[in-house]
Amino acid sequence: MRVAGICSVLMGVIGIFVPLLPTTPFLLLAAYLFAKSSPKLYDKLISNKYLGEYIKNYRENRGVRLSHKIAALVLLFISFSYSIIFAVSALWLRILLIAIAAPLMVHAIANLEIQ
Asked: Is the dihedral of CA 105, 19, 22, 99 positive or negative?
């Protein structure tokens, strides 16, 4: 279980930098595995300056901070905008990207919870 926990932590850390790889689920899995196999590693993970926040927020039902949600939405908007304006030349593909981005952004903005 320790090896799987360490792998989960590594995947979570990679997920901080790779947009499509989630961070929190891997860190939650690592916390679970460490809680079952190594209290010492669990305590290290929970008390970590950077990674512990993800787990503590989840345990306290706070989820993702509003500032992180807003940053993710801004990056999503920039990515779609860049793709639509510069990266794609086919009109049908631009329309498809707009058709995907518009409802996604509306849904994400509508579900922002101010804490």
From this structure: positive
Indicate the SS3 state at residue 89. coil
CA distance 100 to 1: 40
Torsion, Cα 11 100 98 85, to 10 degrees, reads: 20
The gap from C-alpha 55 to its chain's centroid, in whole angstroms, comes to 12
Here the tokens at position 54 are 């993800």
How is residue 96 written in tokens? 């498809």
The DSSP letter of residue 50 is T
Higher confidence at residue 104 or residue 115?
Answer: 104
Rounded Cα–Cα distance for residues 69 and 107 (Å): 13
Res 31 pLDDT > 60: yes
Instruction: For the chain, report the end-to-end CA distance as a whole number of angstroms.
Output: 35
